[in-house]
Amino acid sequence: MSCVRVAVAGCSSYERKGVENAVGMVMEELEPIGIGSGDRVLVKPNLLSARERREGVTTHPAVVAEVVKYLAGKGAKVLIGDSPCNRRVRVEELWERTGMAGVARETGAELVSLDGRSAVKVGSLGEEVYLTPYAFDVDAVVSVPKLKTHGLTQLTCGVKNLFGLIPGYAKLECHKKYHRGKDFSRLLAAVLAAVRPKVTVADAIVAMDGAGPSHGGLVNAGLVLGGKDAAALDAVCAHLMGFKEGEVGHVRLAGKLGVGEADLSRIEVVGEELSRLLLKSFKRPKANAQELVPEFVAKLFHRFIWVRPHFTERCTGCGVCVENCPAGALKMGDGKPMLTPKECIECFCCDESCPHDAVELRHGPLARFFV
Length: 371
Ligand code: SF4
Ligand code: SF4
What we know:
Strand content: 15-25%
CATH superfamily of the largest domain: LarA, N-terminal domain
Helix content: 25-40%
Bound molecules: iron/sulfur cluster
Number of domains: 2
Shape: globular
CATH topology of the largest domain: Rossmann fold
Radius of gyration: 19 Å
CATH class of the largest domain: Alpha Beta
Structural class: alpha/beta
Number of strands: 17
């Protein structure tokens, strides 16, 4: 039986020599990766918003730098690009605060905003997907995600990182159209089918648990993982985080649709013994009750089964969440966002984009029974 390979290297901190060794080890295990001299390569880290590296929200620059250096060592010309969820953030601020400006200075890589060019429409697995043209005019995409929990998709790593290939405004439209978890999984599978990264290298040196992807706890997982199959890499990550096999919707669907391997028995893990790496105290994200009941039940009892944002005293009234609400369910009033509940599609973009950790997700009376 032929197996898909996922390489795992221990790496206890972001100290440079250790990261260089870990990235080098996973890359060597995956060779040949199909990238060579003269190739233009788009490296896609997770730059969700302009947060400092110590906050653990974005891919650490040490990991991005070592991936870039590895690719440059093969003679590739590297671009680093992403499209953050917060539409208000200035791209220069994004590069500086996440450490990508430093990576570019150190390695000579070019920084590109994936919001800077009009999206191209692609048909993929029966979906219409709008993607950055950079994904198609380079010779290869290399995904460098951060391992975190996620309120809608349960985990974000290799596959979910590719959502950032959809430029800003189109991303909001996607949240509107695919707002239930199972629909969003379909979109993610379609993006993966349209843009297969040659390799994915995940920063799980410090991972995020609980209320990810923006406000969870930091966990010293001490790992760098790599794979040519983003879904297989995510399946291994899900296992380490304590999810049951098949529990993470987009990973399961990627396997079912044949765009990745989700069956752990067909994934060969090299480098470390998987059973020794389980993240035993990892806190799972709170389940979205709407996802735990059949759609018709969720619709019928929508007055009682809901998860909605509540704006805490940490709110500064900056208005970022209002601008990033795809459903127009928020408006500013009295220095704080005000929610129109019937407009809320429960996408949690407000929580993701809030720079002040001021959004608390609250469950309706019946929803509390399911989470
Ligand atoms: S909840 Fe967050 S993003 Fe929204 S206005 Fe308050 S501080 Fe700004
Ligand atoms: S209020 Fe928040 S959860 Fe509701 S639709 Fe807007 S961004 Fe999504």
